[in-house]
Amino acid sequence: MDSHHLVVLVMATIFMIPTTFAQLTPDYYDKVCPQALPIIKSIVNQAILRETRIGASLLRLHFHDCFVNGCDGSVLLDDTPFFLGEKTALPNINSIRGFEVVDEIKAAVDKACKGAVVSCADILAIAARDSVAILGGPEYWYRVLLGRRDARYASRDAANVNLPPPFFNLPQLLASFQSHGLDLKDLVVLSGGHTIGQSKCSSFRDRIFNDTNINPNFAATLRESCPRIGGDSSLAPIDATPSRFDTTYYKALLYKKGLFHSDQELFKGDGSESDRLVELYSKDPYAFARDFGVSMIKMGNIKPLTGYIGEIRCNCRKVNY
Ligand code: HEM
């Protein structure tokens, strides 16, 4: 190799490192802004004290961010003249929430870090982890990986295509998760996110009127506040303990008391691999806690922007200029 080629090769290698090989790390902000993580935890804590449900809403925001073009903070962007954002996509409209808490966190970390250091995408990952650990207890804590950057673009169409709806069956749910590099175990364990939070009647109406794989008393009770016509946005808890991150969700599936059709698809009592996982998590909170953290890290690794790609937004709702 002559010297000219050597120079080209070295330059190419140097320029490739930040983009191709950059990886998320747990200590990303330790040197540049050590206050960031404690500040986020304290704001999430206060927000949950004001309204417990917000922890569930923050967890869901991270999921909806990651499944649409990767964990890049795109879910937080408002519509612009150049693109329609994800907030008005069908699975999100009048449903995803928590944007004010994200704004509050962003303002506080930017002040403490003296500038835009922490990305909006990382704020979502940290707030999701903190919510889980606050509502579930210390065994649900996991080391979140960091160093994501923020997208300069969002797509309503991509959100409509990539977020699984509650009427999906098991093969459809699995195909959706596999399209993001996740497997059956990730599907079953991450669906455990439904151990917290609330749902609108319109998301489970079809199940309580038409499904057969449902406990009849459970369906009848839900029909009282979620009639065939009207009451679209009346809320029901997704499991019996919607403010506790625990294994109640899996126990409910064993009794055909999953709120969404997609939840009950994970347990049909036919001895499948999926059934086996639901049974395991219903009995073993430690297995659930451990596997939930592992799968959240896997989900958090979906196509992050790193190196020189993307930006660190100053306002999570808008691209920088
Ligand atoms: C497996 C496919 C999934 C489907 C079909 C699904 C569907 C839904 C639906 C329809 C709602 C209620 C929305 C509404 O009525 O406003 C909901 C709520 C929720 N989902 Fe999922 N979800 C899935 C996976 C996940 C995952 C992977 C997580 C997190 C790890 C998650 C966390 C949540 C939380 C916490 C809520 C409650 C939010 C709140 O109270 O604000 N979901 N989901």
Characterize this entry briefly.
The chain contains 14 helices and 2 strands; from the N terminus they run ααααααααβααβαααα. The protein is mainly alpha-helical and 321 residues long.
Percent strand: under 5%
Q: Which series of helices and strands comes N to C?
A: HHHHHHHHEHHEHHHH
Poorly predicted runs are: 6-21
Q: What average pLDDT do the residues reach?
A: 94
Fraction in helix: 40-55%
CATH architecture tag of the largest domain: Orthogonal Bundle
* Quantity of strands, as a count: 2
How is the largest sheet built, in terms of strand order? 1-2
Largest sheet data:
2 strands, antiparallel
- Ligands bound, unique: protoporphyrin IX containing FE
Distance between the termini: 44 Å
* Total count of helical runs of at least 4 residues: 14
Subcellular location: Secreted
Domain Plant heme peroxidase family profile: 23-320
Cofactor: heme b; Ca(2+)
Protein name: Peroxidase
Description:
The structure is a single chain. This protein has 321 residues and is mainly α. It folds into two domains: 3-163, Peroxidase, domain 1, CATH 1.10.520; 182-298, Peroxidase, domain 2 (Orthogonal Bundle). Helices cover 49% and strands 2% of the residues. It has 14 helices and two strands. It has a two-stranded antiparallel sheet with strand order 1-2. Helix 3 (53-66) crosses helix 5 (120-136), helix 11 crosses helix 13 (273-283) and helix 13 (273-283) crosses helix 14. Mean pLDDT is 94; it is low at 6-21. It comes from Cajanus cajan (Pigeon pea). Ca(2+) 1 binds at residues 65, 68, 70, 72, 74, 86. Keywords: Calcium, Disulfide bond, Glycoprotein, Heme, Hydrogen peroxide, Iron, Metal-binding, Oxidoreductase, Peroxidase, Secreted, Signal. Its cofactor is heme b; Ca(2+).
